[in-house]
Structures are given as C-alpha cells and as structure tokens.
Amino acid sequence: MKRVLLVCTGNICRSPLAEAIMRRELAELGRDDFEVTSAGTGAWDGAPASEGAYLVALEHGLDLSAHRARLLTRELVQQADIILTMARHHRARVEELGGNGRTYVLGEYAGRSGPEAEISDPFGGELEVYRRTFEELEELIKAAVKRLTAEHDAEGKRQ
What we know:
This protein is of the alpha/beta class.
C-alpha cells in the first residue's frame, strides 16, 4: 500500500479537494493500492472543509461533508510514502518534519516549473476562484496519478 499525503495550509480548501480528486482518479483506474490523506501546516484540527471547497466539490460529484482538517505532524509525515504540497513553503515545513527525499510541490511533480507549479489559496475568494482552483487541481492530480501509478508499478517489478 502506497501512502500519499497532500498538504496545504489550513486543510480546508486545496488539500481536501486534491484528496477527493485523487481518490476518484485512482478509483476510476481500479487502483486500491494507494491510501490518500491530507493535512495542513496551519490547520485547526477538526475544522470542516470551507464552504467554497464543499460547494465546488459537490458540483463535480465529490462529497467533502465528512472532511475534518488535520494539523500536519511528524507522525503523519513519517507514515507517508510520498507527500505532495500545494506550495514551496509547505514543502519546506514537511521537510522540517522529516519528509526529505519524498516531498514534492504537486505542480512540479506533475511537470510544471516556476511560479505555475504552486496552487494559490482560494480561501475567502468567490466561488469562481474555487472553481478555477478545482480545475487546476484536477489537471495536476491527473498528471500526478499517472506518474504515481507508473512509479509504483515500476517499483513492484524491481522487487
């Protein structure tokens, strides 16, 4: 079982959306060999998904009603096989907690470089901002899932 941890700031917008999208993508591929979770570098444990994230997820058939924010901890970092962050400052925090060598900015992992590799925080924005964030996350998650599954399958063949 490969454990993927998605990280943003509050764990109420970007990473819960990314988690839901990645779970859907993996399910559509029939992949049950991945466990996907999320956390935030500044999360309030137990907070629900933001209203914007919740509504935009619903528009795409995803349900965030059960989501509860989790603060990123050393234990969560240790449990993860790969950690994908929304921005470079999240990666820096994950690395402080011991995630060196298995932490990537999601956009970079999915093939982007420069400022376009980071996903801006929609928190507090209009629903349209959340919709753009969802579309961007969906594109990046699809590319990341291709890479994740290919790398995981290659690892399995080497063992």
